[in-house]
Design a protein that fits this description.
Layout lengths: L23 E5 L6 H12 L4 E5 L4 H11 L3 E5 L6 H13 L5 E5 L1 H5 L1 H7 L5 E3 L4 H12 L10 E5 L2 E4 L22 E3 L2 E6 L2 E2 L9 H8 L6 E2 L2 H15 L1 E6 L8 H18 L6 E6 L6 H9 L2 E9 L3 H6 L6 H14 L2 E9 L5 H15 L9 E2 L7 H8 L3 E3 L4 E3 L4 H15 L10 H18 L6 H30 L9 H25 L1 H9 L10
Parallel strand pairs: 1-2, 1-3, 3-4, 4-5, 9-12, 12-13, 13-14, 14-15, 15-16
Antiparallel strand pairs: 5-6, 6-7, 8-9, 10-11, 17-18
The protein binds cobalamin and iron/sulfur cluster.
The site of cobalamin (B12) has 35 residues, from helix 1, strand 3, strand 4, helix 4 and helix 6.
Amino acid sequence: MPALSLNVLSSSSTSPCRNTSRPIALIGFQQQGNLGLGYLASVLRQHGYRVFLFDFEEKPETILESVTARQPLIIGYSLIFQFYIHRFADLMRYLREHGVSSHFTVGGHFPSLSYQRTLELMPNADSVVRFEGEATLLELADRLSLGLEWHNIEGIAYRQQDQLIATPLRPLISDLDQLPYPVREYEGIQVLGQTIMPILASRGCARTCSFCSIHMFYRTAPGKVVRTRKPAEVVREMRALHEEHGVKIFLFQDDDFPLFGPVWHRWTREFLSELQRSGLPGRAIWKINCRADAVDPELFLEMRDAGLYLVYMGLESGTEEGLKTLHKQITVEQNIAAVDALKKLGILFEFGFMLFDPSSTFESVRQNIAFLRRIVGDGSAAAGFCKMLPYDGTPIKDELQRTGRLIGDVCHPDYDFLDPQLNAFYTALLNVVDVTGWIHGYSALSPQINSAWHEVAVLEHLLPALGGMDEYRAKLQNLTQASNELLFRVVEDTLDAFTGLRTDLWSSALIRKHCAQFSEELLRERDAFILRHQAKLLQAIQQPPVLEPAFA
Ligand code: B12
Ligand code: SF4
């Protein structure tokens, strides 16, 4: 058996290192496309294995029927969201109880960082694949397929009698361009007939926010934390997706798109010139995730002209104290400057925001609402917020545990605020706001408003100009503004009630009524506008794309 290193990724599929007669099944959350599973599948296929992908939301009976018929060598479970651990454990138990004897392995953030808890909570798992899984899963498959010893391969954890063993970590993949393109076997989401696909230009994040498991994931394994692909390779993949699958909207899922500092500036400029050469600008648009301190107006102007239409930023807090607690290493002023710059450039933005964090006080909540009003009080995007949750493997969770503040369980990790009255306020707010479906969940009001804005961006960038667009935009902006303002008022009035400035509380029935009114108005305006232009839109959507000749 030759020593297996990352070079394993380029070895041939007819290698005597493996017996590919039994397939491999991979199960995960497939909504919007699971790139992790896609990469694992493509590497396995490149080496001759047949791979079946299952959406975790499929009925257990359907998965059982399929795996019983196919007898996979391994069933790999992608646990990228910690709070699904019990559901995955239940699925494993169900399959075992029905006689499935395949090797069960699990990967993702939580299993990588907390392999002990994973093995305890998933008694039917045979192994955990820790951190980037491509090479480790392939080696595991190769060993198992030949009936060879697998307990000594790098980057796994397993149970041995009553002990939990973790082998030395496997280094991160140094050259991401070595990987084949990810398998994308799921219904592509569409907006007005335009197909959307996720894609990656890099992996890892150089920052160290205290609440985030991403940098811990990429920092724990040896190797370079952030790896970028070659710009030309990224564009080649975009072009292939566009030509072969008609993809017109690319969602870069990079944790932090390579923008910050001179080296990544150069990377982005090279990416932009490759994009221009490819002929994609004007035919396809793209979205990125980045930090506010990476928003450089000059560079973003060029990015916009090359198809950047949406920027997601984790703004997280509107107070210096909150940003410090979250170790964002950014200022409130920088957050505001980034939002202002994007508005000026006409680039749509969305943001993550934690109204509550472990340092929260009544005053910080008030300041956070003032910050939200400052950035989206004009109706430029829907307001949204959450409470920071202490995920496993994050510095803030360890700190809360150390100070005795950690409560909840693995699926609902939580903490109490230092001021007990703030706990009562938070519960009261949840009762009126969350339950009514204003902020969370795909059908809640704020995500619906953002979807409408997304649709506007798609109309403006990819479809023929439509009459009345300015009026529709103005209506949408008024509605967003009114909905945001009501949300802010509810929070502020509840704050006032808890700080003795008023006696009455908003009732959830009244909020639900307002929320329903906003939703109805949104739907009415949106449908009226789209219906008015239906014929023109249908004609444009049904037209086959005209492509430029391939790369110069
Ligand atoms: C894209 C994305 C989404 C997408 C879709 C995800 C999907 N279907 O895959 C959407 C927008 C739907 C989404 C939603 C949410 N997300 Co999200 N998301 C991401 C993001 C930015 C990228 C995922 C990705 O493509 N990574 C790239 C691939 C290549 O890496 P990977 O998935 O980690 O896979 C590798 C390894 O983990 C390992 N591996 C993974 N699975 C398996 C399985 C096996 C068998 C093996 C061997 C190995 C293995 O090998 C893979 C290849 O190297 C991640 C951040 C991140 N860097 O992962 C957050 C992340 C996963 N999301 C997160 C969260 C919190 C959420 C939300 C709760 C946000 C919210 N407040 O609503 C929701 C939850 C949705 C739900 N299920 O209800 C957290 C999860 C935290 C945690 N520890 O649980 C993350 C880590 C972000 C963070 N800041 O911490 N998300
Ligand atoms: S929150 Fe964003 S910037 Fe901070 S470490 Fe995580 S991915 Fe990086």
